[in-house]
Design goal:
Strands 2-3-1-4 form a four-stranded antiparallel sheet, with helices on both faces. By secondary structure, the protein is an alpha+beta fold. It is built from twelve helices and six strands. It starts with a helix and ends with a helix. InterPro entries: AlkB_hom8_N, DNA/RNA_pol_sf, RT_dom. Keywords: Membrane, Nucleotidyltransferase, RNA-directed DNA polymerase, Transferase, Transmembrane, Transmembrane helix. GO terms for molecular function: 2-oxoglutarate-dependent dioxygenase activity; methyltransferase activity; RNA-directed DNA polymerase activity.
Length: about 300
């Protein structure tokens, strides 16, 4: 959603995007119980549910309900400007400013508002991990003033396991995926020594999950070299396990088809009304998606 909104905005001339990746210090552990109960009541959650339990740390790190409770706790933190998008997933928060004609006032106002809201709700910004990225492809444009967060600005930031660089290319992301998957091959070899029957399940949970993280977003932008690096890991896993595994292309096809089906079935999804356009844009001469696969997607639509 973040990438789509940025690229769509940059289609217009004289535009650029400013993105603030927000990180909180011990987010789940800083929730105030009284505030949470008030927020739940405002969302019409029954009082009997709101009063469940009473502990000093209302939403401990690692608790199953912590992401949900934090999402409800921050539900009232929203954007007031149409040109600003505030994306939240549990404790991952991203503020995207769609800047036109050089007017950054709304973006900077929203940052001030976010900082104020956090202080009022006992959430502390981790300035060492909060990163701002400016995506600007204008020619001869003066670099916009970055937000001062007491540390040097970084040209990249991780978001939900994927690494976004300021030029919107994916080289760092591929390097990160490759490194993590290669490290986990060690554990696959150890499993082979003690419990061979569970090796495929272990591979799917520990290695394939890394290789396919956001694959429907970055796959079409991957070079042949990038794909080859990731495919070599799959081939290495096949040799260790002793059976054939889905190729990177097959994994991309199955997950894209599954994702398309979910968007088609969900009218509330932001991409639902654009489903034909967004899917069709992936089917072009240089894309490895086969015509039959594209046909399956359109049949679902």
């Amino acid at each position: 959603m973040a990438l789509h909104s940025i690229l769509q905005h940059l289609d217009s001339s004289g535009t650029y995007a400013m993105i603030l990746f927000v990180d909180f210090s011990s987010a789940f552990n800083t929730i105030i119980q009284a505030l949470l109960q008030d927020k739940l009541s405002q969302l019409h959650v029954p009082d009997s549910t709101c009063s469940w339990g009473s502990i000093s740390t209302i939403s401990p790190q690692g608790c199953v309900l912590s992401p949900l409770l934090f999402s409800l706790y921050t539900n009232s933190c929203t954007s007031s400007h149409q040109s600003i998008m505030l994306l939240k997933f549990a404790d991952d928060t991203t503020l995207i400013g769609h800047i036109s004609v050089g007017d950054e006032s709304a973006y900077r106002w929203e940052i001030d508002h976010l900082v104020t809201w956090c202080s009022q709700n006992n959430l502390e910004l981790n300035v060492l991990k909060t990163v701002e990225i400016v995506v600007d492809f204008r020619r001869n444009a003066a670099p916009p003033a970055s937000i001062t967060l007491h540390h040097p600005p970084s040209p990249w930031s991780p978001i939900l396991g994927s690494v976004i660089f300021q030029d919107l290319k994916w080289e760092l992301n591929f390097s990160s995926l490759t490194k993590t998957a290669q490290q986990r091959m060690y554990f696959l070899r150890q499993v082979k020594k003690v419990h061979q029957p569970m090796m495929v399940h272990f591979y799917i949970a520990i290695i394939e999950s890394i290789l396919t993280s956001s694959i429907n977003i970055w796959y079409t932008a991957a070079t042949a070299k990038n794909k080859s690096r990731l495919q070599r890991i799959i081939r290495s896993a096949e040799k260790v396990i002793g059976c054939n595994l889905p190729s990177l292309q097959d994994l991309y096809a199955s997950r894209t088809l599954r994702r398309a089906g979910k968007i088609v079935a969900d009218p509330s999804h932001p991409g639902h009304k654009h489903k034909r356009i967004s899917i069709a844009s992936d089917v072009h001469d240089n894309d490895p998606i086969t015509y039959s696969f594209a046909t399956k997607i359109f049949q679902r639509i």
